[in-house]
Design goal:
The complex is a heterodimer of chains A (163) and B (287). Chain A has five helices and five strands, in the order ββαβββαααα. Chain A has 163 residues and is α+β, with helices and mostly antiparallel strands. Chain B is built from eleven helices and 14 strands. Classes of the chains: A alpha+beta (163), B alpha+beta (287).
């Protein structure tokens, strides 16, 4: 009988609430979020860190949740797409994606929005190059890049108008 | 086929000494696991042969960037994002910052580490050519002690390195001697963002009175390991960066690289592009 790893208990904060789950140490955080915590907004695209569909924030940093082992989520602060809107009010980026047609089939959308929200946290008024770089790790197979880009530009303008 | 998860173990040592103790007690059994940007890809593909890992991601002894008069020393867990954000690195080590900015995506740069990039030992890694140009040395530690080794002799063959099973890369230090040199970096991939290199070229030179007083050139993806182009460097030293020097250096470079055909490119393409990048580097030196 080969040696078998046991499931471990991991405690972390997900979208502002305490969360706890059991998982094998190398289980993908992506699968834990979707299957244990039932947060199915985070999508799987390629499963190898190329497409950004599974992007989440971990301790404020954008990461691909398909490449994070469950063990390393211990003690982490995690934000998924479910935690981007506050109360009933959409984030400016989410609203802009709706207004400007930034979502088509929707698989890349949660990752695109997390990437954009994370960019705005680091650069509140990004220029076009920074927006392109901020989204460059996220692939869209509906080829809707321009509308996605324009959505983020609009979200930035909206924030500027408010300020 | 996906991996069978119960077959994989991972433990979190409380500090570096505990990690090294574990590695010494069962040499080769426990391997370090940092940001996972390479290992998790292998795992998902069912191609991760090793089964027991030590989670070193939170070890503070492997973090931090420190500067002295002669060196900048980076903990092995320094991420690509941290490299880009560091003021001295941005000013004096543009090749390393460019390599960091062109490795993977923002998300990869937040998790991928310099130590991991070295220990993964891929000849297509993008930080090694920059590290070689900056005369990098790496500190290797084990329960038995520590040693500094020059990075340019660390990789001994394809995916092989001078690292014993119980040893760990702790720090990397780069020399500040190239500050003020003309520096050149270019990664050629299929796509501008997050492609793996077809070829990567990093170089720096000190130009005095129109002549190349000193020069360092290193390339990725053109040989079984990252390669320092010592023959091309030798030809260029003392020369003016003109056509005659270029042709001789291109021929020398052609003789010392050994590119192959693979899924990302062909040997012929890599050979041509290596020559062209050398030409572009000399244009930078002449300009």
């Amino acid at each position: 009988m080969p040696e078998r790893a046991r499931k471990i208990r991991v405690s972390c904060v997900v979208n502002g609430s305490e969360a706890s789950f059991e998982a094998y140490p190398l289980a993908r955080l992506l699968d834990v979020l979707r299957e244990e915590l039932k947060l199915t907004g985070t999508k799987e695209g390629c499963g190898e860190g190329e497409c950004g569909a599974c992007s989440i924030e971990m301790d404020g940093a954008l990461v691909n949740s398909c490449l994070v082992p469950a063990l390393q989520a211990q003690g982490a602060k995690i934000r998924t797409i479910e935690g981007v809107a506050i109360g009933g009010s959409l984030h400016a980026v989410q609203q802009a994606f709706i207004t400007h047609g930034g979502a088509q089939c929707g698989i890349c959308t949660p990752g695109m929005i997390l990437a954009a929200v994370n960019l705005l946290a680091r650069h509140p008024q990004p220029d076009d190059t920074q927006i392109r770089e901020g989204l460059s790790g996220n692939l869209c197979r509906c080829t809707g890049y321009m509308k996605i880009f324009e959505s983020v530009v609009a979200a930035v303008r909206r924030a500027e108008t408010r300020a | 086929m996906r991996a069978f998860l119960p077959a994989y173990e991972m433990e979190t040592p409380r500090d570096l000494a505990a990690a090294l103790g574990r590695m010494a007690s069962e040499p080769g059994v426990w391997k370090p696991f940092a940001g996972g940007t390479d290992l998790m890809v292998l795992l998902e593909a069912g191609k991760l042969p090793h089964k027991k890992f030590l989670n070193i991601w939170n070890l503070q002894e492997l973090r931090g960037i420190e500067a002295s008069a002669e060196h900048v020393t980076l903990g092995a867990l320094t991420t690509y994002a941290e490299v880009q954000r560091h003021e001295i690195l941005a000013r004096e080590f543009p090749l390393l910052c460019r390599a960091a900015a062109e490795t993977g995506s923002v998300a990869t740069q937040n998790r991928g580490t310099l130590g991991g990039n070295i220990a993964n030992a891929s000849p297509a890694a993008d930080s090694p050519p920059a590290l070689i140009v900056y005369d990098a040395e790496i500190e290797i530690v084990s329960a038995g002690g520590a040693r500094w080794v020059p990075y340019d002799s660390f990789h001994s063959g394809y995916k092989k390195m001078n690292l014993r099973p119980e040893e760990l890369i702790r720090r990397i230090r780069v020399a500040r001697s190239a500050a003020g040199w003309k520096q050149y970096f270019r990664k050629v991939g299929t796509r501008r963002a997050q492609a793996i290199s077809k070829i990567c070229f990093a170089a720096a030179a000190r130009v005095e009175a129109g002549r190349i007083a000193d020069v360092r050139i290193a390339l990725g993806s053109v040989a079984p390991t990252v390669l320092r182009a010592v023959r091309a460097e030798q030809i260029l030293r003392g020369q003016q960066p003109g056509v005659a020097a270029l042709q001789a250096a291109q021929n020398a470079l052609g003789a010392e690289i050994a590119p192959i055909d693979d899924m990302r490119s062909t040997a012929r393409y890599r050979r041509n592009v290596a020559r062209n990048l050398l030409a572009e580097f000399l244009e930078v030196l002449a300009g």
